[in-house]
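User: Hey, quick favor. My workstation is busy. Could you predict this chain's structure for me?
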Amino acid sequence: MKKTSTRLADGRELIYYDSRDDTVRDAADRRPLDPTVTTSEIRRDPLLGDSVAIASHRQGRTYHPPADECPLCPSQGERLSEIPDSSYDVVVFENRFPSLAGDSGRCEVVCFTSDHDAAFADLTEEQAGLVLDAWTDRTAELSHLPSVEQVFCFENRGAEIGVTLGHPHGQIYAYPFTTPRTALMLRSLATHKEATGGENLFDEVVARELADGSRLVLTSEHWVAFVPYAAHWPYEVHLYPRRRVPDLLGLDEGARTEFPQVYLELLRRFDRIFGEGEPATPYIAAWHQAPFGALEGFDGISRDDFALHLELFTIRRTSGKLKFLAGSESGMSVFINDVPPETAAQRLREVASS
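Assistant: No problem, here it is.
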């Protein structure tokens, strides 16, 4: 992998990740851009104890542009985009309309391929491996920023999810705090470790799914994928490396080499859940990594007790119908799942690649 860092016309950082070591990236951003102005502010809810990002400048962000005006396609002639070069493998750049900025963290965009009409599932294993390299590199770099406590790599796919740019891409949020969902995991981890005299909850969850087998989706030498026992979403898969590590940086060579094959298979199965002729399945793919800051309030555990894993889920519950977060989910955070996890796992096994 070759990494080339440059700056856009308004001062934002852009990084090319290339599979070839001899690739030259020297194209300049020719757009007459003013410096970016953000109004991101973190406010803490005194009742719930969580944090909310107030980012009013995002109201003006790009919204469903036509394909020939896509800001994530490479620049061509006088059609200038966020990527100055006329081609690329993988690109990461600072979001022009960030939810988090400055002392409130950082937001980046990850473009998986220059092919506007592709999806992550269409990538080759080499391309998917390069994306993993980019996620890992950005996690390492962002973890050193003084304002960053946790790094979250994710992909929103599909208009139903709320995606406003059709080009295959994901995002990276670098939070200045430990997110509420991670805090819940850490709390459960600490409670379980104390109650059992030192056992790791993540290890037990994976071992239990392997022993039961009814919710397994696929297994390999280095990875395990399963529908969780208490799945929140109609079709939800958790992907764990067999060797527990706290973050993407901890993956060994075997897990890194095998990841593209396993992940691409999962994504392709998701697109086959609802049968032939159905539109592409909307999903969220979310990497959960240990915070890089001190684990204050979680006595008895360290970040090495956390288990890196990816959670992949869709809001589509059946053909043509979505799972809405209505009163119970949105009002009280109590999920009601219409699809039994064992049924979901069976379907995801049925649609395996031949």
